[in-house]
Amino acid sequence: FHIGEREEKCIIEDIPSDTLVVGNYKVQRWDIHTHDFLESAPGLGMFVTVTSPTGEVLLSKLYGPHGTFSFTSYLSGEHIICFQSNSTRFAVIAGSKLRIHFDIRVGEHFLDESAIQAKDKVNEVNVRLEHLIEQIHHVTREQDYEREREEKFRKTSEETNSNILWWAIVQTLILISVGIWQIKSLRDFFISKKLV
Fold first, then answer.
1. Is the whole-model pTM more than 0.70?
2. Which residues does the UniProt record annotate as the domain GOLD (predicted)?
3. pLDDT digits (tens, 9 = 90+) for 3-36
4. Residue 95 maps to which CATH number?
5. Do 9 and 92 fall within a single domain?
6. In DSSP terms, which residues pair with 51 in a beta bridge?
């Protein structure tokens, strides 16, 4: 994505609880002379801020022109990941565009390659098995989170349906009472004018 040099850009990521999140990014600055983005942006860094669904700041750190950050979500919900450059130039002359390449991995645990390349095949199988068990736990957590969201959505839908039912009953009662009042008023009017 592209941002201005002094602009902040935020991304919302829906993450289950107790999940490891790893993000990699690389910043490129627009070069006026070559009319292209430079591969490196020396001296330019990024403030990375991660906020939990309750507004608690989980991570707030300055990184270089490329970096890796990670955090663990303690609550399930929408986490906000914000990027802002550390440019100190005035807003008038800080008109340069930045291109950010961003890759996020949610719930991914990395295999230790040195352990995998061990000569002992039993250790290799054991490490891979532990990795698979971790992935199964991650999938289970994500399914539990989706069940929670589905249950919350179902409750909201049922409450809305019951509110609509009561509103329809109230409208019907109001219409019937207005109709009865109009009939009574017309009857009283006709009787008072001696038309009936």
1. no
2. 8-106
3. 887 788 898 888 888 888 888 888 887 777 777 7
4. 2.60.120.680
5. yes
6. 57, 80
